């Protein structure tokens, strides 16, 4: 018979833990990215070691159940202040409080100041963090509470910004000195473009409001380099140090090396797919909009004729009822019908709906260009002749023509291609130039490798664009695998031209792996007979009958040294010299050519023009 186990002792009440002073403090450093100095430490509380209340979540959950959360917060603050003073730590002390605890703190301001004086801590070294635990029903009434605490010399911070109750409303109303970005937005920011954009928006507002930003939850070098290069000032997380009763007085060598890393981040925004949509669907519709009068449903054909005669450039007229379009009358078809004998006498006084298209193509002003583009591929092609109706919230706004629709879709897609290639979704010319400029501004050394495919045009001519696109996607995949995404930038210049901006130390080995990998993979797109023959027959650019070997990869490279980049080169010049190296590589047996810095400088001093991607 198994002995009956003893019942587990009940967890002590929070008030008992406070009375017996069984709480302990741990501290996590907050690090300045500029020089690696420690700005201060966040004080955190722990329950008795080895018990179920050791973790802060369990501790505060128990306090909530017992109705003594604020008492625990005040005890935690006192514990952190005592330990901070005892350790004689330099820098600021960040203390967490809920809104209710902050109100009590302000009400007992003199007692708080006395406590700090007893421990020899200047109030100016204290940063009060408002946690996200509870909403503040009266934010306007809470502002004077914060102002009262600020008069002591303490600073105010918003904690875990971007989640729960830490909102833009609080930022605007309370004007914090420090905003701590929640770890959710920082974790994996190096590979998540949406998190990157969210943090960049916070950064813009911080610059406008004068607040300092602290990136919480930094756990790896890649995320650190991204937030560092964004211009955020401070960071906190396990990459620097975990919370500890005896915190480090300086950052580790690994963290310092990461902060001083010469390479710059590849921002995730530059590697995402960009949809072929207008920044605002309404902007595209507005450009197509023809503001034209409409006729009511009860109008006659004579009214339509009079309108067309009065406005000779009007291609169509809309029929509306209660402000909503119900039909469209095309000018050409209407006038051709009226040119027939006796049609005006027979039909002039009849309702205009008789010759109207009762189901016209309609485009809402808010529609994206991608949605409009579906019309171009649809079976219903009436819009090409009739035009279409543009509405705003379902009400008639004006007309558009098929020609303007084609032009709008084409323009937006061309503009989108400057930012991201629509086939490979790799960054286009504008992000490429932007990243080169960032490299030069930061004096980061790198290798610019211009990639081209030999014999791609004859392959494309013989096998068709669909197969050609598959070869381009293979090239993009091979090159992407050759890059370390946090260090190396891959862009698609256009057609079969790519550009890699390598910061990886082993860039050369990566290039040498990529070329044969692509060359072997490309052969699978050939028919068996062409594979046996070693290529295809076709015509060269002069129309001469020629035999072309398999599609192969050529890579030309220029090395930009760290110390000289910002003074000797521009992004256009670097691209030009890399393109020259590419042209040489197309004739090299290995498929690779490197132009050394000395020759690059000489070429640039010769004022080489015609940058390969300045569109």
From TrEMBL:
InterPro entries named in the record: CBS_dom_sf, Cyclic-di-GMP_PDE-like, EAL_dom, EAL_sf, GGDEF_dom, Nucleotide_cyclase, Rev_trsase/Diguanyl_cyclase
Domain EAL: 7-257
Superkingdom in the source lineage: Bacteria
GGDEF domain location: 444-597
A Pfam cross-reference name: GGDEF
Record-given protein name: Diguanylate cyclase/phosphodiesterase
Organism, as annotated: Paraburkholderia metrosideri
Species classification: Bacteria, Pseudomonadati, Pseudomonadota, Betaproteobacteria, Burkholderiales
């Amino acid at each position: 018979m198994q002995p009956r186990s003893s019942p587990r002792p009940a967890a002590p009440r929070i008030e008992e833990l406070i009375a017996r002073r069984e709480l302990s403090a741990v501290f996590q450093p907050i690090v300045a990215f500029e020089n690696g100095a420690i700005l201060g430490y966040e004080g955190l509380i722990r329950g008795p070691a080895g018990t179920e209340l050791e973790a802060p979540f369990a501790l505060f959950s128990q306090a909530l159940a017992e109705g003594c959360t604020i008492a625990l917060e005040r005890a935690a603050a006192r514990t952190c202040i005592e330990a901070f003073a005892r350790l004689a730590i330099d820098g600021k002390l960040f203390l967490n409080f809920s809104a209710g605890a902050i109100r009590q703190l302000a009400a007992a301001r003199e007692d708080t100041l006395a406590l700090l004086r007893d421990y020899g801590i200047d109030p100016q070294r204290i940063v009060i963090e408002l946690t996200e635990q509870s909403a503040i029903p009266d934010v306007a009434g809470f502002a004077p509470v914060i102002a009262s605490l600020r008069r002591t010399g303490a600073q105010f911070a918003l904690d875990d910004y971007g989640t729960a109750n830490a909102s833009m409303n609080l930022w605007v109303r309370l004007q914090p000195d420090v905003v701590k970005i929640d770890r959710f937005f920082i974790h994996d920011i190096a590979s998540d473009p949406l998190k990157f954009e969210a943090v960049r928006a916070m950064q813009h507002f911080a610059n406008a409001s004068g607040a300092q930003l602290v990136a919480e939850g930094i756990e790896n070098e890649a995320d650190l380099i991204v937030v560092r290069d964004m211009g955020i000032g401070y960071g906190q997380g396990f990459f620097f140090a975990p919370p500890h009763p005896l915190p480090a007085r300086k950052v580790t060598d690994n963290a310092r090396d990461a902060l001083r890393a010469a390479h710059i981040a590849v921002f995730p925004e530059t590697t995402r797919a960009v949809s072929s949509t207008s920044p605002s669907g309404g902007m595209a519709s507005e450009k197509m909009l023809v503001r034209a009068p409409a006729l009511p449903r009860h109008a006659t054909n004579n009214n339509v004729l009079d309108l067309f005669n009065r406005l000779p450039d009007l291609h169509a007229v809309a029929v509306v009822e209660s402000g909503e379009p119900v039909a469209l009358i095309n000018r050409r078809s209407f006038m051709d019908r009226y040119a027939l004998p006796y049609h005006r006498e027979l039909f002039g006084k009849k309702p205009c709906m008789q010759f109207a298209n009762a189901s016209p193509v309609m485009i809402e002003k808010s529609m994206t260009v991608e949605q409009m583009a579906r019309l171009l591929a649809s079976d219903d092609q009436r819009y090409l002749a009739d035009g279409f109706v543009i509405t705003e919230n379902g009400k008639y706004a004006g007309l558009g023509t098929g020609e303007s629709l084609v032009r709008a879709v084409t323009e937006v897609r061309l503009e989108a291609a400057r930012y991201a290639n629509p086939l490979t979704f790799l960054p286009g010319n504008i992000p490429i130039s932007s990243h080169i400029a960032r490299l030069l501004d930061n004096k980061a050394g790198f290798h610019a490798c211009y990639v081209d495919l030999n014999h791609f045009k004859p392959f494309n001519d013989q096998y068709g664009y669909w197969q050609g696109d598959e070869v381009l996607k293979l090239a993009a995949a091979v090159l992407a695998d050759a890059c370390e995404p946090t260090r190396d930038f891959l862009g698609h210049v256009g057609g079969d031209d790519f550009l890699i901006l390598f910061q990886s130390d082993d860039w050369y080995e990566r290039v040498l792996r990529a070329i044969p990998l692509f060359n072997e993979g490309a052969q699978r797109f050939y028919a068996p007979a062409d594979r046996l023959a070693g290529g295809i027959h076709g015509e060269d650019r002069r129309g001469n009958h020629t035999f072309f070997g398999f599609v192969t990869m050529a890579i030309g490279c220029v090395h930009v040294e760290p110390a000289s980049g910002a003074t000797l080169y521009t992004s256009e010049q670097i691209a030009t010299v890399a393109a020259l190296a590419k042209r040489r590589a197309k004739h090299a047996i290995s498929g690779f050519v490197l132009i050394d810095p000395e020759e690059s400088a000489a070429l640039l001093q010769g004022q080489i023009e015609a940058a390969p991607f300045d569109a």
